[in-house]
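The instructor's notes for this session suggest beginning with a concrete chain rather than abstract definitions. Hand out the sequence below and ask the class to guess, before any prediction is shown, which regions might be ordered.
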Amino acid sequence: MWNIQRVLLPLSGVASKLSLATFFPSSSRLFMPSDIAPPPTHSDSAQAPINADLTKEQKLHLYREMVRIRRFETTSLQHYQAGRMGGFLHLYIGQESVAVGTISLMGEHDHVITAYRDHGHALAVGMSMDECMAELFGKGTGCSKGKGGSMHYFDPSRNYWGGHGIVAGQTPLGLGLAYGLKYRELKGAAICFLGDGAVNQGAFHESLNLAALWNLPVIYVIENNGYSMGTSQSRSSAYPSALAQRAEAYGMDWEVFNGEDIYEVRARTQVAIDRAHNESRPTLLEIATYRWEGHSVADANKMKYRTKEEVERFQKEHDPIQVWKARLLKEGVATEEDLIAINKEAQAEAEASAEFAKSSDYPEPESIFEDVYWEVDQQTDAGQTGRHFFND
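After discussion, reveal the predicted structure:
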């Protein structure tokens, strides 16, 4: 069983300049609205086997994927503000290392499901910018044929199951993915992402209970950016020292760690994946991160429930892309010119995806009746008669 004291290890990097009181104020709460900071980084993460074996090309790939997400998000924001998109737009800017780091560990039988802030996870599993951007524009070439929008990306071919707009609605579905893996005796894990605001939903606790009761290979990842929409964690959640500690009520393993360093994310998440693969046991991870933008683009109060200074501090001192860039330069993996070129390529790809989306056609009106029920689309007996006999 993990204990919060596991977090209290020697500090490194930017975090070493801060005191433990910054990370764990007198109230023992991880996040405070006036003094928010990520937990310290484990000093041994870079030497973990899963990271020590990374090649230069693989390290550059991690950087490229984070930059691609950042450029996709900033480009989509420009077009949203220009009135070319409708619906919601929940941006992932500032949290890129969490999706890229965890998903980089996925094997053949590992699956991903997440909430409505889903663009980063979609790109990280290998979905194209074209299909993702077209979905934001509501075009038929989008990954959900223009019917899902920002919150409902899907790609079953890549074991990516969305993209869900109901808070915590994905948590029992992630449980179901894990149940399917165990039932079929496949060595895999279901990685289910959620925000810190979702931990207070009943469906999440029901999922934890069954995950522990049936020993299912599910990994719940709380991407804790400190605010449930516009309410700080300290005002919205009761907890002794960390949200993940709630796992103790269900006899589950848990851990809290810093999400701004990909070495850290990969090393700590791999422990949970090994547990799921080899022991078919669940884990609850809490990864401290930070979103630069509002809860959604429609968040008019994004600078009222947090200060401008707080946002700027995270942008300057805790940008995961800059943290990884510094690592690559220090290790001699790449030069400044190499990384500038990657940024330019990502920006060009994002702009091209927007042009693709603008030139694509909207779905035909009659397509609204498609993709509602699989049995109907496949014209099975059940789809034509409305009767389904489960014992046949």
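Then share the key points. The chain has two domains: 64-361, 362-392. Residues 83 and 137 are 10 Å apart (CA to CA).
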